[in-house]
Amino acid sequence: MNESLFSQYINTRMSALDLQNELKRLIGLYNKAKGTYLLVYAVDFEKAFRIQGLNISLTMNDYQIIHELLRQVKQSKLDLYLETPGGSGEAAEEIVNFLHDKFETVDFLIAGEAKSAGTLMTMSADEIYMTDSGSLGPIDAQARVGRTVVSAFDYVKWIDDKREEVEKGTPLNAVDAAMLAQISPGEYMGVFHAQEFAKDKLKEWLPRYKFKHWNETETRKMKVDEAYKAKTAEKIAEKMINHATWRSHGKSLKISDLEEIGLRINRIDNNEALCDIVYRIKTVIKILFGSSTFYKIFFTENECIVQNAISQNPFTGNQQNIQAPVIEVNINCPKCGKQYPLYAKLGKIPPELEKQIASKSRKFPADNRIECDCGFTFDLTGIRNQLENQFGRKIIS
Q: Can you give the pTM of this predicted structure?
């Protein structure tokens, strides 16, 4: 039986540093196979659910980091591996403008999820490469109205529908009248422009980049001019923002969905030279997030910037400052809750002191694993990485 990529990497028990080096190696292989310069930008969706206040959204700070990583790159072709739930449309626009000003061609690589503003960015690609596991999403803007985040498309359409009813002489019922009375012109226009921004960007970027070399239709071999490109882009934009079609802002749009609305997608799974590399990149990213405190990463073949999640401290017991040679922590079994006092050495300590500490705690395991009395084995790799990042020193086995 063939071993899965997850099993291959997990069984090697790579540290967070090993995984980072492996990701850089894979990026190098991708660059050679495709003749490009790959930037990996990915976020950990799971940590956002576990850590209160963690912002994994696309922001202007991400634009600044991407700008710094790429501004001195000499290659003319860029590929962007993108995993994001979305975020600021303005940040997406800044990133897109910078990338296309800097590079002759910009291709997007989607193996995980790139939703909302991430999808909008992808629509600026010269070529879109996707795996069967990859997905984009609708680009209907999400707007905050009062205490609720709503679909801009639904909000605007509901108000427009009510306006048409009144113009036709149909009186509003009491509920609709009460709701409309609470909406200010400024609020309506703010939501309206949020919706139009995404539509306008897609209508601008598709003809300029994705359709740049589109000269004839595939089936009827009709000549494609600028007017035809603009009309096609407008149709795609209308479909992508239509919340009534997709029902959910989090809807996963696969290759078949995108091709159905008129986009041509390059299927990575058909490309033997790239398929294994891309799936390995995706797997290493997933394991790296699971075994570290990283929640947002920016990687090239030679450089990386990572952002660490600052969570509520899971440790109890005696935590000394960075100068302390030993850390004492209490770890609970995820299954039965039994507590295991551990100590981790960051430097040499007197044998008498270690003997005293060892009488009440066990040494942090070199293989990062504890077998609980309940039969459950749990991995402490993430705890080790968090401690080493926090105190700036390696734990001595």
A: 0.70
